[in-house]
Write a structure and sequence with these properties.
The chain is mainly β. The chain contains no helices and 11 strands.
């Protein structure tokens, strides 16, 4: 069974940085995405590394501050988060799918358990 395990979350002050990682137990997937869920909210699409890393797209809310990276040999997906804001506070999840590459969290076949990111003002 494929597992995705996120790590790297924590608490940071506004303006700080964090780097999240997502380790895949099996081969990397064509599409690997990051989502986040703030308390009381639906999952929000953060960005995606699609086509095995050939394309990367970001939500407008994080564009220019967050960077997605992937290492297919190491089976790792990364999310470098800079200039963090209190509104970035959420549980961050990685998701993977061989075909689906959209913005619906529930449509991804594989999803991790998440890692908490808290940004204080």
């Amino acid at each position: 069974q494929v597992q995705l395990v996120e790590s790297g979350g924590g608490s940071v002050q506004a303006g700080g940085s964090l780097r999240l990682s997502c380790a895949a137990s099996a081969n990397m997937f064509r599409n690997m995405a990051w989502f986040r869920r703030a308390p009381g909210s639906e999952p929000e699409w953060v960005g995606i590394s699609s086509s095995f890393g050939g394309n990367t797209f970001y939500a407008d809310s994080v564009k220019g501050r967050f960077t997605i990276s992937r290492d297919n040999l190491k089976k790792m997906l990364g999310l470098q988060m800079n200039s963090l804001k209190p509104e970035d506070t959420a549980i961050y999840y990685c998701a993977a799918d061989s075909s689906y590459g959209g913005r619906s969290y529930g449509s991804y076949k594989y999803r991790g358990q998440g890692t908490q990111v808290t940004v204080s003002s």
